[in-house]
Amino acid sequence: GRRCGFPLIYALSDKVQFNDQGNQVIAFVTIPLTIEFNVQIDDVKVVITPSGDLTATSAEDFRAMLIKLYDEGHTVFYFDLKNVSDMDSISLGVFFSFGKMLKDKNQQNGINGTRPILVNVEKRLLDFFVLTGLDQLCTLSGSGKE
């Protein structure tokens, strides 16, 4: 069980440097700073297609965009995740809180339960969503819960 940390460091880092004594390590990791959201709106629905992985760096902008769209009167949301292969817990929380907000506000306004719909979800993410209970607030493409 010893020395298993080095392979992990190398696997997760773009570049690794050690000092001359070998008692200090610098790991370089690329973190994307921006993600783009393609938003298409028609008379019935809003389709949002993220251009990359959903992480904490984009979560607040994502949340603010969803609230703005809802405040503009949109109530049917599709999320096309065809370009998303990874998501962190912060972004998962955005989906949770938005799904819950949408459910609660629709009930308050007498709108019959429209849930966010996630389509083209990679199997690994689909399993993660079901495991964490997101399938209780959103409809997942290919999950058998549609």
What does this entry show, briefly?
The longest helix is centred in the last third of the chain and has 20 residues, at 89-108. This protein has helices at 5-12, 56-71, 89-108, 123-132; strands at residues 15-18, 25-28, 37-41, 46-50, 77-80, 117-119, 139-140.
Keywords, please?
single chain; 146 residues; alpha/beta; five-stranded mixed beta sheet; two-stranded antiparallel ribbon; 4 helices; 37% helix; elongated
Helix amount: 25-40%
Distance between the termini: 44 Å
- Averaged pLDDT, please? 85
Q: What is the element string, with H for helices and E for strands?
A: HEEEEHEHEHE
What Rg, in angstroms, do the CA atoms define?
A: 19 Å
Q: How are the strands of the largest sheet arranged?
A: 3-4-5-6-7
Instruction: Please summarize the sheet with the most strands.
Output: 5 strands, mixed
Query: What is the strand content?
Result: 15-25%
Number of strands: 7
Shape: elongated
Low-confidence stretches: none
What's the total helix number? 4
Secondary structure class reads alpha/beta
